[in-house]
Design brief:
Elements (H helix, E strand, L loop, with lengths): L1 E6 L7 H15 L3 E6 L13 H5 L8 H9 L3 E7 L7 H17 L6 E8 L5 H10 L2 E9 L1 E2 L3 E2 L9 H18 L8 H20 L5 H10 L1
Parallel strand pairs: 1-2, 1-3, 3-4, 4-5
Antiparallel strand pairs: 6-7
Helix pairs in contact: 1-6
Length: 226
């Protein structure tokens, strides 16, 4: 079993990576292999809004996004982490999400992966960013967040001394991710998933099938999944 860790922070070894590492420690304890993907290590251009990906199934921009996408698709699970900037991921990660979002919307690119969302901040809430990222990249197993600012010290490095229970919570989430991949639960879809399914059947599918010149790439991916 293989877990990909996508670090959306501009810091390769910052607070977000520390919290993600604790989750990965739990994954490793449960027997999974892990690999890091730091957005700062890759060349990622802005989305041009050309819709070529929908027509052909591929993006015309020559950068590292296809390689990132492939490595994520080859993983059994994804741990995705981000700091919180004004309630959103930072620009580096947001640019990657923008590049992936159109095909993800129409083809549910990452629907087979189980995910854990990680977010850090100074004092701002972290759950919204963590949930968004986990849901974007697959089926959410859980989220974890940490705030790293105190009145006494200001901004500081995330440490187990701040909350001795936090590392074990993160490791437990990593173990749960591996267990969920190994033994996926059988459950009824949520009302939100049911609503999305209705939209896909009665709005998205007729739109795509009725306009093959605009959605040829989407249709090809659908056929591959059948």
């Amino acid at each position: 079993m293989h877990i990909a860790a996508l670090n959306g922070s501009p810091h390769r070894k910052g607070n977000t990576a520390t919290l993600m590492q604790w989750v990965l420690d739990g994954c490793a304890e449960a027997g999974a292999s892990t690999e890091w993907l730091h957005v700062t290590d890759f060349h990622i251009e802005y989305c041009q809004g050309c819709f070529t990906c929908l027509r052909t199934g591929t993006c015309p921009i020559a950068d590292d996004v296809p390689a990132i996408r492939e490595r994520l698709l080859n993983a059994d699970g994804i741990v995705v982490g981000s700091p919180t900037y004004e309630g959103e991921p930072p620009a580096q990660l947001k640019t990657l999400l923008d590049r992936l979002t159109l095909l993800n919307l129409y083809t549910r690119t990452f629907e087979g992966a189980w995910t854990v969302g990680v977010a850090t901040s100074g004092v701002a809430p972290t759950s919204g960013v963590a949930k968004h990222l986990a849901d974007f990249f697959g089926q959410r197993v859980g989220i974890i967040g940490a705030k790293t600012t105190t009145v006494a010290r200001g901004y500081g490095a995330l440490s187990a001394d701040d909350d001795p229970r936090l590392p074990e919570r993160a490791r437990r989430l990593g173990r749960l991710l591996v267990a969920r991949i190994a033994h996926p639960p059988r459950r009824l879809p949520s009302p939100m998933l049911l609503w999305i399914g209705i939209l896909r059947r009665f709005v998205v599918r007729p739109l795509v099938e009725g306009n093959p010149e605009q959605f040829g790439g989407v249709l090809a991916i659908w056929k591959e999944k059948m």
